[in-house]
Design a protein that fits this description.
The protein has 81 residues and is an all-alpha fold. The protein has one domain. The chain is 79% helix and 0% strand. The protein is built from three helices and no strands. Helix 2 packs antiparallel against helix 3. The termini are far apart. 26% of the residues are buried.
């Protein structure tokens, strides 16, 4: 499992956040929803490619961190004055 795979998952899950931020500022629940709807199923599909459960959890955390950063950036772009 490479970092480019994680980056792709974050990028595609961020597209869900990009649609939502047009309506209102993003919240924690929006990040959770993007993770649950898009990222988690993709991670589960490639779970066997990780060395062990710790590496899988690390990748999941990396995706969550990426989504939080994307949400923060999107909120700043769309909702800061």
């Amino acid at each position: 499992m490479g970092s480019t795979d994680i980056e792709w998952i974050v990028e595609k899950a961020t597209e869900l956040l990009e649609d939502k931020v047009e309506e209102e500022p993003l919240r924690e629940e929006d990040v959770d929803l993007a993770f649950d709807i898009f990222a988690k199923p993709r991670l589960e599909k490639i779970k066997d490619s990780f060395e062990d459960e710790d590496k899988f959890q690390e990748a999941s955390n990396d995706v969550r961190v990426g989504l939080h950063k994307a949400a923060k950036d999107l909120n700043r772009e769309h909702w800061s004055e």
